[in-house]
Amino acid sequence: MSQALFDLYDAIKAQEANFPLPEPEVTITLGTLSLISVRKRLPLANKYYEEINFLYAIPTYRGPGYSIPYDPEIPDGPHIAYWPIPGFGGVLDIANIHNLNIEILITDWNGIGLAGNLQITLGSQTKTVAYGQPSVMFLNVANVDAVFSIIINNQFGANPVKALLPLKINWSMLGAGAITLPAIPVALVYAPVVDPQKKNSASTSSTITAGNTTTISFTTSSSTSRPVPSSFQNVMDMQKDLSTVGGALSQIPNPYTMAIGAGLSLIASGLGSSTAIETDMTSVNHQSSLTVISSSTETITANSSDGGPEVGDIIEYLYNVKVIWYSKNGKMTLGILGYEGSIQTTMGSLSKCLLKLENQPNGTKDTSLHLDIAAIQALQKLDPFTAGNQVSSLQPPRFTDISHGIKGIAGGGLSESYTYTVSAATSQTSTTTITTVENDSPGFLSFLDIGVTEEETLQTQISQTNILQTLSTQSVTQSFSLYGVAGTPYNSWIYYDNVFGVFAFRDMGV
Q1: What is the pLDDT of residues 179-192, one digit of tens each?
Q2: What fold, for 23-172?
Q3: Residue 101's pLDDT is what?
Q4: pLDDT tens per residue, range 403-457
Q5: Where exactly does CATH 2.60.40 map onto the chain?
Q6: In angstroms, what CA-CA distances link 164 with 34, 125, 316?
Q7: What dihedral angle (degrees, nearest 10) is formed by the CA atoms of 231, 236, 239, 243?
Q8: What is d(CA 500, CA 211) in angstroms, rounded to the nearest whole number?
Q9: Which residue in 237, 406, 428, 448 is a FRET match for 335, CA 20 to 30 A apart?
Q10: Nearest 5 degrees, angle CA 60-CA 103-CA 36?
């Protein structure tokens, strides 16, 4: 990962302060309704009409007109039943608020008399207001284009006085920042059973991709709340979205909203100006999952000399993956900026590293593998041979028996290539691990609607699915070489891992 990307990551991280934590509940005063009728003479006639007197406490705009009845005071005057009145609506900009309550103040009740009554509608809520009540409250207003209407039944007039005042609510729940994922797996290759000469090997090779598809959701270690899903997005597409939203919010005459817009615009500017974004190793498929690509052509070989199944199994992963997050109205989107490096190692090496870290302070990372205890254990869980009972671990839907019988070697050498056709059903099989996110913040937790305290430990639930899920069928061919010594036979059973797209070998002596 280049220094430019490190700097960009730090710059995005610094912008998190520009996104205030979402408030659980906020009450805003819409304006004041005066019940004293404003009587105005109509032009060219000795007629009068009543107009509702409402003073907005928020910005307004000219909306569609409405008609009201008027009182004919001169019987022989021209007959006009209604008169069009220009309507004025309010514009309410809401940023980072979960529940919105709207209050309307009411004054001058003597204007409608003791026998009059008042009815106010806001969105789907209608309130009949008791005489003398100083205000009316509408709780949990969710309408983004609410109708605000008032009906006054004045005891001094036969007809009710009505007003329709459109209300526009621009609702935004926005946050952005950066986190670090300690490791994202790229490939898993199983070692064959150990032969007497320790010459057995298994290889996986691909000219397209050597990886798998990753989806991520979040939860906390101290909470029973459901995991919060997220989706990946191409970084350049995210940059366009951030730029558009940020530019729009920056124009709203609301300091709270303008600050959010400025933060989004600054992040978009950084993404757009960076020419070192490493997108060659990751792509986003149509299901908004991340496809991790290790190389255009790559062959990974697992040798029995490294210890056989479990110990000699090889895993490849990206470490310290730098992720930008963007939350918009409850939807969390992730984009990969880059990563510090990739490592290919054996499960045996992970186990040795785990022993070295046992007595170290929590969070200590091995200097060669760049992983702490939690990250190592998460990677180990991807390998079913670490579960102890291979018979129960190598079961559908993740594993498919492809040898249909024991492969016995009692001498000489045997090299084979197995071709297995992957169906749409098997390619959708997945497995899940849990790791801890690094460099998270109260803001990130809050926008995930999990919590707002530093004490929460945010966990990443990483689901691995075969990359071939984007195809209807695909044939996979892999090779292995098994060697034997006369008089020292051994047996193996062969499976196909539907998640990582590789073959697994079970020693029938186990």
Answers
A1: 888 888 888 888 88
A2: Immunoglobulin-like (2.60.40)
A3: 92
A4: 776 777 777 766 666 666 666 555 566 777 777 777 777 777 777 766 555 555 6
A5: 23-172
A6: 15, 15, 64
A7: -130
A8: 7
A9: 428
A10: 75
